[in-house]
Specification:
Number of domains of chain B: 1
Helix content of chain A: 55-70%
Mean pLDDT of chain A: 85
Oligomer: heterodimer
Number of helices of chain B: 6
Shape of chain A: flat
Strand order of the largest sheet of chain A: 1-2
Largest interface: A-B, 74 and 60 residues
Low-confidence stretches of chain B: none
Largest sheet of chain A: 2 strands, antiparallel
Largest sheet of chain B: 2 strands, antiparallel
CATH architecture of chain B: Orthogonal Bundle
Low-confidence stretches of chain A: none
Helix content of chain B: over 70%
Order of helices and strands of chain A: HHHHHEEHHHHHH
Strand content of chain A: under 5%
Number of helices of chain A: 11
Structural class of chain A: mainly alpha
Radius of gyration of chain B: 17 Å
CATH topology of chain B: Arp2/3 complex 21 kDa subunit ARPC3
Shape of chain B: globular
CATH class of chain B: Mainly Alpha
Mean pLDDT of chain B: 86
Radius of gyration of chain A: 24 Å
Chain lengths: 277, 182
Amino acid sequence: MAAKTVLNYLPRRSVVHDLTGTTKLAFFLLFTFAGMLTYDTRVLLGLLLVSLLAFRASRIRVREVRFMLVFMLVFLLMNNFFVFLFNPNQGTEIYGTRHVLLNLPGRFAVTAEELFYLLNITLKYFIALPVAILFISATDPSEFAASLNSIGVSYRVGYSVAIALRYIPDIQRDYHSISQAQQARGVELGKKEPLFTRLKNAAGILLPLILSSLARIDVISNAMELRGFGKNKKRTWYRQRPFARNDYLALVLGALLLALSIVITFYDGNRFYNPFI
Amino acid sequence: MKKNSIKTVVAVGIGAALFFVLGRFVNIPSGIPNTNISVQYAVLGMLASMYGPVAGALIGFIGHTLIDLSWGGAPWWSWVLASTAVGAAVGFLGRKLPISEGVFGKKEIISFAVINVIANAVAWLVIAPVLDIAIYAEPAAKVFAQGAMAAVANSVTAVVIGALLCAAYSKTIAGKGSLDAE
């Protein structure tokens, strides 16, 4: 089928794969939170190093996730370009100094501060990339509901996520066949049609999909009700694993990274590391 | 999630899967370069008004997080939370809409439209840009321009496609007192 799965689990024997789903989820959240809070270049570089080491340890090859990498790089380039276009002086505003490197007409002079600021934005997003890829590629989706539940999310919500992951391929297939069938009947979504017709045609494809999905909601919820879902406050999980030594180590590392990055970032009272003063 | 909570759990799951598939694979050009029509917000509007604010918020949150993860990278939390807010707001304001009872006439279409415009405006003009500035320290001009584009595109999609979907769906349900004595 043309549309392949995108949330791709790559099973393997590695230190990272052996961690429980709970650990990976918690580490992922701690790590992205640390990356989100800080704008300190030194912290960002440190986090990047940890992130790359974790990727190395997972034995997932770059070739297998090349698509995501290329997409992110294009996205980051575009984002940097727009940030620059809308406000080429954001760097100067943040760092308070101005070193012009290249004089361009209007307000578009390239300053060292702006380039440094763009580097920080890029780093900030890029450090999360290896960890996010690991989180997707090294976590068994069947374990995910259990992980969510064990970090304190209600098991009903965990179950919703599990249902979403389970039914994405089905709905994708449905969408594919419906849209092909409708296109065979001349329903067009491309640029040839005026905007309003395009929207109307989209509704024509969506309607069968929605109706079948609503029917699916009924079938699944009846089946779950018959099995007594939601009767108790707690539930057990088939795929839950007990914590091992490495899990504790990874969690401590995640917590330490978050604490360290908060301390280093904020001890001088500013989110930004300023090399210009 | 008190009454009929199993149905809500499943609706969130299937809704998030729909949101994901539509947001990830369906590209309808809007006419403006690099901007696509995000049909998933039409479905979010419809499901949120059918299943309530909690379901709406969770569909937006889970669906958007999965989309961002599938592109590879940490979720862009500011926009994920904006999607969550759209679901919650439409679900809260539209919880009285009688779509599941098979009633969706002129009056309902108008309130559905107003509700969706309000929800999308708040989410994309306020929540997303403000969080972008707070979390990512991006230039205000850029994030508000992006937010304004998203607000317009998503409101139009939600109102036009969403209303068409609701109207068509409510026709498939036999309403109260639709039987006539002969």
